[in-house]
Design a protein that fits this description.
Layout: E1 25-26, E2 41-50, E3 56-63, E4 72-79, E5 83-85, E6 89-92, E7 111-112, E8 120-122, E9 140-149, E10 156-161, E11 163-170
Length: 178
């Protein structure tokens, strides 16, 4: 980028400047799966937008109750168990129908959040393709698809909430490739 003093040329100075890396994402504050009964599944399409000035990778981590080591994807307000384990939350950040997530289902063999160290990352070796924005007319965004299944027979009801953490990282420094 070049900045030029448009004042008088006698006082103008030209020099190169470096702008530091800005690593930033824009994602919705909530992902909703609607109202589901035990045994039902819902799919959510969530866009991730690069609002920084470099190509980005992402890291994803899921947990419940603000406990990053939780084995649960969601905690519910009522029922006998009140927990939906990480196993029942599936996602795909690559190779999806980006318009609708229509070909994405819980039963498909996609990644899920299945253990206490469930963070996964995508970078230049395993790209999520979240390039830096090139102009004001087009946002640099990509789609993630999520499927939540409400397990049958474990007594879950009420409102269920969990946390999916998206972290932006420089594609050269994003570690933990799945």
């Amino acid at each position: 980028m070049t900045a030029i003093d448009s004042g008088t040329n006698e006082n103008s100075t030209y020099r190169n400047n470096t702008i530091a890396k800005l690593i930033a994402l824009m994602i919705p504050s909530e992902m909703s799966f609607g109202s589901l009964n035990p045994g039902e599944t819902a799919v959510n399409r969530t866009n991730v937008t690069n609002t920084g000035n470099i190509n980005l990778g992402i890291k994803i981590h899921g947990f419940a109750n603000n406990a990053t080591g939780s084995p649960n994807a969601m905690n519910c307000t009522a029922g006998v168990d009140k927990n939906i384990t990480l196993f029942y939350m599936h996602y795909n950040v690559t190779d999806v129908d980006t318009d609708t997530c229509g070909d994405f289902t819980w039963a498909a063999n996609y990644a899920n959040l299945t253990n206490l160290s469930n963070e996964h990352a995508w970078n230049s070796s395993n790209p999520f393709n979240l390039y830096q924005r090139q102009n004001d007319a087009f946002e640099s965004k990509n789609t993630t698809c999520w499927a939540l299944k409400i397990p049958s027979g474990i007594g879950i009801s009420g409102t269920c909430k969990g946390i999916i953490s998206f972290t932006a990282c420089d594609t050269d420094d994003c570690a933990g490739i799945i």
